[in-house]
Design a protein that fits this description.
Blueprint lengths: L1 E5 L3 E7 L6 E7 L15 E10 L4 E9 L2 E11 L4 E15 L7 E18 L3 E19 L5 E3 L2 E14 L19 E13 L5
Antiparallel strand pairs: 1-2, 2-3, 4-5, 4-12, 5-6, 6-7, 7-8, 8-9, 9-11, 10-11, 11-12
Length: about 210
């Protein structure tokens, strides 16, 4: 599965292979874009790239795409559990974001409500599936945008940073049966995350 985002000054690519649990990616910036005319006027599409951590410091990557207050969100983590075993976990959801202050405020608090499906996968020797299950989930998120939303403009896009926390409840985790005890830390019914996101607003009519 491949995720990629590209415009004239920022490009990312992220590939992950659900069967084996392998993933890799990169992010690049075109410094010459800093010399281009600032043409951003309106927000047509928002993309979000974030790094979040659970309480036990498990890192998750956040990728979101939104139009107005509606977002498609993916939290993803993969890696080794013990020798010969790898896990691959993704939370795929839709959410609605409430914004309480204007885009020009220095601090911009938000509230996000969402629901989705969380996938649990465990493989042995990279290709032998030991666990493949999905459970429904609901999420509440709170965040604060740092600085005016459109103060950092490059060409037809506006960049901003956002600190956030998320609390997710996953239904039915008690029925998940993994063959190794170490996987149990990834099947919690409640997951609390905190981290930071890069928010990019795109103006498709801005050149």
């Amino acid at each position: 599965m491949v995720h990629s985002l590209r415009n004239i000054h920022l490009f990312t690519s992220y590939r992950y292979y659900p069967h084996s649990g392998f993933s890799y990616g990169y992010i690049g910036i075109d410094p010459l874009a800093l010399t281009k005319e600032k043409t951003f006027k309106n927000r047509d599409l928002t993309t979000v790239q974030g790094l979040y951590y659970e309480v036990d410091l498990n890192p998750l990557r956040l990728t979101s795409i939104g139009i107005g207050p509606f977002f498609l969100d993916v939290f993803y983590i993969s890696g080794p559990v013990i020798d010969g075993y790898r896990y691959n976990i993704g939370d795929y959801g839709v959410s609605y974001q409430f914004e309480f202050f204007s885009d020009n405020a220095f601090l911009r608090p938000t509230l996000q409500l969402g629901a989705g499906i969380k996938r649990f996968n465990l493989v042995k020797d990279f290709d032998v599936v030991q666990l493949e299950e999905a459970r429904a989930s609901i999420t509440v998120g709170a965040g604060v945008g740092l600085g005016p939303r459109y103060s950092w403009i490059i060409a037809n896009s506006a960049y901003s940073l956002k600190l956030g926390v998320y609390l997710t409840h996953i239904f039915g985790t008690e029925s998940l049966q993994a063959p190794i005890a170490a996987y149990g830390r990834h099947t919690k019914a409640w997951v609390f995350l905190m981290g930071i996101s890069l928010v990019v607003d795109h103006d498709f009519n801005g050149g």
